[in-house]
Every structure is written in C-alpha cells, then in structure tokens.
Amino acid sequence: MTAPSLVLLCVAGVLVATGVYLLLERSLSRIFIGLGLITHGVNVLVLSSGGAAGRPPLLGQEDPTAMADPLPQAMILTSIVLSLGTTAFGLA
Q1: What is the rounded CA–CA span in Å between residue 60 and residue 47?
Q2: In this predicted model, what pLDDT tens digit does every residue of 3-28 receive, in sequence order?
Q3: What are the residues facing 67 on neighbouring strands?
Q4: Would you say the pTM of this structure is higher than 0.85?
Q5: What pLDDT, in 10s, does the model give residues 37-57?
C-alpha cells in the first residue's frame, strides 16, 4: 500500500482546522459552515487513507491484489448522507 499524499493530508488538516475555528463562533450560520468544513476534511482524510486507485472490486473478474478497497468509498458516502441530514435538521 502506498503512503497518502502530503498535499491531501494538508488540505484535510486545513479544512478541519478552519471548521473547528468556525464552530467556536457564536453565529449559527458559522457553526453550520464549520460543521460542513469538518465533514469535508474528514472525508478527504478517509479518501486519502484508502490508498491508490485500483481496478473495480468485482470478484472473479480481477486480481484481488489489484482491486480498489470499496470500504472508504462506502464510509464517505454514508458520511455525506449523514452530514446532509444534520444540515437539513439544523436549518429546519
């Protein structure tokens, strides 16, 4: 497995740090923007920890060592749905 890109790790760190800064403000709109930035930062971090892109994970058609890991993609999709629900609940 290859190491994650330093640029992606820095982008994730900046997104999370900016989100935490905005989360500590008193304005409700800044809190929601901060939550969104934290969510995006964590998604970038999970995506970069998934490793390099590989072949589609279809059993029987590809070599298992060349397949991409589908777990980080599924976790990010779940995170996107949960953050959308959180934002919609907070704005209602």
Answers
A1: 25
A2: 678 899 999 999 999 999 999 998 98
A3: 55
A4: no
A5: 999 999 999 888 877 777 777
- The Cα–Cα gap between 1 and 50 comes to 9
Tokens describing residue 28: 């409700």
Residue 73: C-alpha distances to residues 30, 33, 38, 39 (Å): 28, 23, 18, 14
Location of structure tokens 């905005």:
22
* Residue 61 burial (C-beta neighbours within 10 Å; 0-12, 13-18, 19+): exposed
Both tokens of 74, joined, read: 């599924």
- Residue given tokens 């949960």 in the structure block: 82
For 10, phi and psi rounded to 5 degrees? -65, -40
Tokens for 50? Answer: 């998934």
Distance CA 10, CA 69 (A): 23
